[in-house]
Amino acid sequence: MSALAYNDAEKGTLEVHSPQLTDPTKDEKKAVDIEVFAVQSLKKDVPATLPDVVKPPPTPAKSTKKTTPLWVLWVIWYNTYRRFFTVVFVVNFIGIGFAIAGKWPYAARYPGALVLGNLNVAILVRNEIFGRCLYLFVNTFFAKWTPLWFRLACTSTLQHLGGIHSGCAISGVAWIVLMVVHQFKTKYMFNDSILVFGVITSVMLFVTLCAGLPWVRNTHHNVFELNHRFFGWTSLCMTWVYTIATNAYDTADGKFDHVGRYVVQQQAFWYTVGMSIFIVLPWICTRHVDVDVELPSPKVAVLRFERGMQQGLLARISRSAVKEYHAFGIISEGTHAKHHYLICGVQGDFTKGLVNDPPKKIWTRELKFAGVSNTSTLYKRGIRICTGTGLGAALSTCIQSPYWYLIWIGSDQEKTFGPTISGLIHRHIGPERLLLWDSKVRGGRPPTMKILKEVYDQWEAEVVFITSNYVGNFEIQHGCKEAGIPAFGTLWDF
Which domain holds residue 234? Predict the structure, then answer.
């Protein structure tokens, strides 16, 4: 069933080295002039002092490789995503074992309900509307006053709901395979059409499942998009046919004489209705909207849309109404603002087309979905560290909250990303909570963990949110875990 990962836009993979196409305004403060600034003390009676981190850093030396402790590797690998997956998978396959052994009468009587129940949950946790409701509930009732461990658990749960999605999807396919195998074993009781539709539905669901595997979605995104979505829709249609045919067929007399009220009263019918609603609802919000495209460099397109947004949201955009949607973090000054922006780094055919052939209109979901940054309101103070185009998923949090510190690592930042993005940073984020590291000017990568630890202590932060490429995310997240700093990094949907 069609569902995109919420984390595609959280991958700040672009480190660009490109000439400037449009000059920034002359009176803007240049990014290269912004060093590391003092962090203001939280205590009123203690004056702000310059920590070691504000000293002009020397040219970064090549760091010696450090071995990550095994316990850190294990804790980060076996995260909440995999724990959710393990619980769902184990519970379902224990149930399948009991069903095969004939020890669970409900499974024998209502196999379709177990198939569709799992698929419903798999789709629901990836539904944008349901996700927004979950984030709203958590942010409204648990912000700041609850224990830190509880708030961290809330963020971790919301970020890793994909584990439930994957576990339920695999379990649903396993249940329908068991159901079809049982029908073939007793095929004298069933009409041939039911057996055929059972096989077709199983195959469609299996292909949908394979298209969503991490290797496919991360290395062949367009293949994932098209197959996961269109085979998912085909699976939904086949599920309707299979559900109605199975419930309408009377094994006692071999006729399709269970119609009307009887079919509607079955659990499987209403599970299918729910699944259809969960899939269709987000598409109702799809619109063809006006967009202005700014091209500050050949490697970046900055898209501007009407109306402001709250922080921590992401947008999906496409040139087609139903194909190839791509997710990007939303930059906005707040719900009162006239515009919001997307930073689209050139990394594939779609984003390359935004630069080579800028659109005047583009398809998007008017209802935006929440990313992990949306839970920033849970914390009293935090740090947002990002690299390259990962700024798109991080900037709104620091613009809209004075309690968040921004660390942005990139190359030729102001030239590459242009005056619009630079202006937003300089107008809304004071020097006391801003660190811009231009690797081209400073001669290389920063001592990231040294800077992060010092800012974390001085800023008295509760949590760190990371938006970086795979290597950067790995290093920072493992470093934070080893240092005892609560941190949430980019997901690749495992």
Answer: 74-284
